[in-house]
Amino acid sequence: MKVLKKKKMIFLLVLILFIFINNTTLLTNSAKQPTLLAHRGMAQTFDMKGVTGESCTAEKIHNPEHEFLENTIPSIKAAFNAGAYIVELDVHPTSDGEFVVFHDWTLDCRTEGVGVTREHSLKELKALDVGYGYTADNGKTYPFRGKGVGMMPTLEEVLQEFGGKQLMIHIKSNDPDEGRLLAAYLNNYPKETVNHLTVYGGDEPIAVLKSRMPDTKVMSKETLKSCLLPYIAIGWTGYLPESCTNTHLQIPEKIGPWLWGWPEKFVDRMEQKGTSTVIVGGNGSGFSSGFDTEADLDRLPDDYQGIIWTNKIEKIAPLIKEFK
């Protein structure tokens, strides 16, 4: 019995040592720099306190420090020029078969229009002022009113302008038909353009889009769970589930430490399978925040080498050069 007990103890110690060596980042020393994801391009930011899905964030902006409006061609261009590796944008279908780049489900907050965005034609949406509703002083002044007329771009215009850049497209609904429509839309573009795209959104449209565009990187709650849950169970071995191949992961900063090999080995394992890793602020419940200040960057692990989600690309890009 003593011999058997001793063998079990040795086996347990060897197993613990294997798990430690196979997942520790203490023995690695990568010089690779992290990269940046610019949320909505270069955008006006707002106070996150009290924000819900029904909030009009254009009425809560901070005092403007630049002239750019989210989800516009100038905004996206400015974000790439500032140092973004990838730019996130939001899309809606129009009533006449186009896709426009715009964040809100309804028009009432940011524009002078009213009603559900997708219930309007492209001509109607192109006539709107996307800077109409922005105010930093409770409506005393509207610094961008009149400056955003005709600036709601189509997805086609964005892809023509930035076809060789990394773009992350956000489907704003959970309508499976929207996944079908977007897949049909994107399949008209060259493979080299589509290969630079990531699409995320509700489980149903993402599942439909992935079935029609199997080589496209996608993300939804379901794809996250299908990768991360089995990885948590067996990732200590270094094995990656097939569901972690060629996909996209957004990892809340408080969840990351629970993942085997976090951060350096985890990011490297995913990259070897064609999967990108983005770290976002918070714990994954409610609205996740970006890394928007120097103090935010201080919370990152020193060896993080994946993609960082930011709402302040113009502030964070200069700092990231000194991150390592």
UniProtKB/TrEMBL annotation:
Query: Which organism's genome codes for this protein?
Result: Mesobacillus boroniphilus
Q: Which GO terms describe its molecular function?
A: phosphoric diester hydrolase activity
Which GO BP terms, alphabetically? lipid metabolic process
Which residues lie in coiled coils?
none
Provide the taxonomic classification. Answer: Bacteria, Bacillati, Bacillota, Bacilli, Bacillales
Entry superkingdom: Bacteria
GP-PDE domain sequence ranges: 34-320
Please give the InterPro entries that the UniProt record associates with this protein: GP_PDE_dom, PLC-like_Pdiesterase_TIM-brl
Give the matching Pfam families: GDPD
Transmembrane parts of this sequence: none
Q: Where is the signal peptide?
A: none
List the protein's name: Glycerophosphodiester phosphodiesterase
